Amino acid sequence: xxxxxxxxxxxxxxxxxxxxxxxxxxxxxxxxxxxxxxxxxxxxxxxxxxxxxxxxxxxxxxxxxxxxxxxxxxxxxxxxxxxxxxxxxxxxxxxxxxxxxxxxxxxxxxxxxxxxxxxxxxxxxxxxxxxxxxxxxxxxxxxxxxxxxxxxxxxxxxxxxxxxxxxxxxxxxxxxxxxxxxxxxxxxxxxxxxxxxxxxxxxxxxxxxxxxxxxxxxxxxxxxxx
Length: 226
What we know:
This protein is mainly α.
């Protein structure tokens, strides 16, 4: 019975990590597709991103239920408890990343004259960095790799730099081309959503660091805003 109980517990932890991996994969795809829809002016693809977000929401609920079940029935301690709590928090963060991708997709139909707005060319590169942060931080979570988690945290500065550059470019563009203010403002929201994705990947990295080392990431006491 003891052996069965331990195996069942291992299976539940494995299932929890599998759900997080599935959520992360969906979030990565949502980021890529939302920006692709923006660049290609593909309203159908944008609508697909919005519709697919429901699966992320459902997976978050599954993570919540399983984590509560594990805590209630297994009473995990030390490393195991950190694993469960981290998974619970990470699922919520990934769900928010999906929401940011969905927000980008919702703005696809609101941006007109995109070929005339030069800062749009910077957004796909910014998105690639943010998406790579999400991928790498989930790899770090799967491997309990604190070093990779720290590298993800460090990469967030590059996303911030892109956001600042896009912000300056778009403000200048709006001043010089008042007729494009509405579309340029939408692109500002897109860039802001990508910047928030980077922040949230950083939050996950800090949780991975905590789960791996049992210590909070030294550079910040609290996660960034939601």
